[in-house]
Amino acid sequence: MLYEEQSKMKIYTRTGDAGKTGLFAGPRVAKDDLRIEAFGTVDELNSVLGIVRSHPLDVDIAEQLERVQADLFTVGARLATTQPERLTIRLVDEQDVARLENWIDAHEASLPELTHFILPGGDIAAANVHHARTVGRRAERHVVGLCHAYPEDGYEAVVVYLNRLSDYLFVVARAINHRAGIREPIWLGDASK
């Protein structure tokens, strides 16, 4: 009996052993290139959100975070190419930012007014969301750097999305603590006074 054996794709390619990697539809660049740093940090953010989603969460928050993780794959794809017109996916845009804003508004409606700076913590899921928020801010800073280095490449929509995402994550951390009945740790300034 004749059959054609299909080759399996290997995880390792050895093409990055010299410290270079390929952008989608584009050149090979050093692994410390600004674009690699930016989408690598977005990937890190996505992984931290995976940790968050491994905790028991209310259905609405779990579904929102799953959608955010999907968005972050899109963001990563956008950052991994110098030719976004060759991507066959819808890129993040003002609709996605509006969705985040709607989620923020809905969560804030059920939260007590914020009167102090709060310390990251509380429920373990909330603490991990705060961690995700800080990784998101780092990703945002890297993309701002891309905007300065490559102003013609149009990364501004990604900056807006990541900025709003960090706001959303802050509110979600608060919502998780509030729903769990955990008092938010607040910063009172210099406690030794």
Question: Which helices and strands, and how do they pair?
Answer:
Blueprint: E1 20-22, E2 28-30, H1 34-53, H2 59-79, H3 94-108, H4 124-149, H5 156-179
Antiparallel strand pairs: 1-2
Helix pairs in contact: 1-2, 1-4, 3-5, 4-5
Q: What string, H for helix and E for strand, traces the elements in order?
A: EEHHHHH
Number of E-type strands: 2
Strand content: under 5%
CATH architecture designation? Up-down Bundle
Q: How helix-rich are the residues, as a percent range?
A: 40-55%
Residue stretches low in confidence (pLDDT < 50, at least 5 long) are: none
List keywords for this structure.
3% strand; elongated; 55% helix; two-stranded antiparallel sheet; corrinoid adenosyltransferase activity; Hypothetical Protein Ta1238, Chain: A; 193 residues; Corrinoid adenosyltransferase; cytoplasm; single chain; mainly alpha
Structure overview:
The protein has one domain (26-179): Cobalamin adenosyltransferase-like (Hypothetical Protein Ta1238, Chain: A, Up-down Bundle). The chain starts with 19 loop residues before the first strand and ends in a 14-residue tail after the last helix. Helix 1 packs antiparallel against helix 4 and helix 4 runs antiparallel to helix 5 (156-179). The chain is mostly helical and 193 residues long. Strand 1 and strand 2 (28-30) form a beta hairpin. The mean pLDDT is 88. It is elongated, with a radius of gyration of 20 Å. The protein is 55% helix and 3% strand. A two-stranded antiparallel sheet has the order 1-2. It has helices spanning 34-53, 59-79, 94-108, 124-149, 156-179; strands at 20-22, 28-30. It contains 5 helices and 2 strands; from the N terminus they run ββααααα.
